[in-house]
User: Fold these one by one.
Assistant:
Number 1:
Amino acid sequence: MTEKRAITRQSLGDLTLPPTVRALSGAVFDPSAKRWAFHDGLHSISVNFERLRGCATDELIAATKFPLLWYAENTEATTVVSQFDLMRRLLESISDAQGKPVSVIDAPLLANFRASLTSDTEWRLGALSAFIKKWNSLGVPGVTNAAVRFLKSIRLKGNRKGAAVLTMDPLKGPLTDIERSATQAALNDAFAAKKIALDDYLLTWLCLLLGQRNIQFAMLKVCDVEEIVKADGNHEYVLRVPRVKQGGGEARREQFKARLITPSIGKLLIGYASSVRERFGLDEKFSIAPSQAPLFPQRKATKRIRPGFHHHTSPDEIGRQNQFGI
């Protein structure tokens, strides 16, 4: 195949998708499906290739699956989703510019795409660079050698991390002291007026106190809440927060960090955790040990089982349950 030749069905003829693929987390899915859908720990994974229809040829869409399969088998599933979304944006931008579906990714197309980006969005091509290079290294048609040479010849800015915090962005940055005090007062008033449920109340307070990620709260179990009686008779309340991998947020309960909780919230949290443990112990429909019950159980049953996280609320739902948007 020459550098500028589009993919044909014949050029993909020797490349066949396996009947099933096992993701790095152990989840199994059908790679030939138009939409990959499975659970990876607490993440609900969805990669809908129909969203590429219209901005890429059928052959290029088929070719895209091969590097994504490599990522599914060797990286976290959330990385697969992010790479797919970035690729979709790239193909949509190129397709809009040339007025037809993309058939092959070549150097001039990447150069034009880079020119359309700003200093704040240039990271999108940088984040795709490794994916495009992997695509080409697998010997799958769709990315030319010239495209890879172009990516290797340029320097791309990375995504600015923490900019909202460092600049105290009024919309995306952290709460100011005044905003935090107002939020705490409104939260307490809403709970006193019975406008917010106990689990939402405690979840929001934990967000305020600890500032952890949604996935870390979703991973919590009732056994992570502890009440410690000290030698002087005073009580301390500790929450064992699971650590997650930076960036990807991999859901594995292997390492923890003990965080002290203020007594007023700690007492409520102990009572709440005990009630959840009792609920899971009395109801026979739950097939897990009461001590392994989720601290924040899901409100709606899901069709797919999440190994190790049965009945846990997903990170996205944790965010929606947090009514104050912390």
Number 2:
Amino acid sequence: MALPIIETPRYELTLPSADIKIQYRPFIVKEEKVLLMSMENQNSDETLVALKEILRACTFDKVKIEDLPMFDIEYLFLQIRSKSVGEIAKFKVLCPDDKKTFVDVEVDISKIEVQVDDSHTNNIMLDEKRKLGLVMKYPTIDFAKAGLDVNMQDIDKVFEIITSCIDHIYEGEKIYPAKDTTKEELRDFIEKLSQKSFENIKTFFESMPQLRHEIEVENPNTKVKNKIVFKGIQDFFQSASPTVA
């Protein structure tokens, strides 16, 4: 005898990076189990593969997950999670004032939005006189393997991240698409920039839109109030201590 088919509800959201509406459904038990197992194994590559496959399935194979900016991925994941396991998530956070007391908090993850720095821009002017500049594109989920810290000591990884995120270089009306340029040529271009121009590129990464939520907690032992910041998928998915504001 065939068992009844369970239908999952459909929801709609607008991606933060563009005014594009997409439909999605909650996780099913099997999908969440795969993701949890990969996270328990602490295998970041395995977790990213599982996450991409699950998000692709939950958006009915109509969204190119690998092309989305990381902040779109984070927002999409959080909205799916809120419809899958509940809008109120419980966390155990460490009070930073004594670094030993944990406090239970609840966060309505369905209302968390992507925060955008007012001064952020992906159009970076390098030389005003020549009207020389470059336009950056946002890192995708595949960059999460190497991390997105442009202040890391590994200069080769820093240059790999930067060159991979260049959409095009321009001088006046002339456009030089990155896709038509070799990695070596792009790296050589970046290496010849002034320190100020290079810092402006780093600022693009440091000020990128991000999923962020701030709460205030009071240490029950010391009565000290502290601000706690949740950022990114890891903070919202696990009950680990978020960042101190």
Number 3:
Amino acid sequence: MNVIDPRATRLGAALCTASAACYAGLSILAKLSFAAGLTLTGMLSLRFGGAALVLAAMLLALRRPLFPGLRPVARLLFLGAILYAVQATLFFRGLERMPASIAALLLYVYPVIVAVFDWLLNRRLPDGRTALALVIAMAGVALTLYPQPTSSVDPAAALLVLGSATGLSLYIILSEDATRAVGARVGAMWIVLGAGLSFGVAGWAGGTLEWGRALAEPGLIAALIVIGTVLPVTLFLAGVGRVGPTAASLLSTLEPVFTVALGAIVLGESLAPIQALGGVLVLAAAVLVTTRRSLPAVAPTE
């Protein structure tokens, strides 16, 4: 019989909540980076490359092996360089053209998309809760994107963020086995390294890296690495071990709530009432899917 430690549960919930707050800060930091003139490839190559170095240093400090074998490493690098990098590109390109609060809300259709992919790939018929969540999510997206006199959303930007949510869903499905085989921390290090290399090569080939401009904003780059990547990953992993994957995934749905609050405080953003209602429906759909059964304990990442 397992004895539940209330203090460990409270600590785990606090860690997962802090992870969600850090991920919320990522959208705000990205907005500030774009305003400072940083390029997408320069910003993300340094973010992911720096995060990989910090995660590697943490693993070495814990005396954990970094290299789990050629085949697992190749698979993890591929996941980072292709799926992770593509979904991040779609999200940040959409974020450039819409408020951070709306981008975060649209991204959170991903738990519903994960359930749909689970049905399609594993031939499991969706239960009533999943079907209801899909309907609610679609209604929520429609209301979030409903034209407003002062805050209409660029349709192309919305498609980019919804494409990112689809890519994130595929990443979660395909990375679950790969990260379980080597451990979440080692898997995270190689995946973000793959993403960093992908953005570095793309930026070098396209002449858009402009690292000089990015390094002229050391505070932003350090915050993107630590607050936007390393802290949320490690806090989520520490939290999920104490509260379990379902509760951890449920607590991660606080991210867009934090994003809306930070967007209002830092960027002066605001949601129209109908958009706020749409956001509530999107989050309700995410909660419905998250609580229907145990889902992969993968922290949302942009």
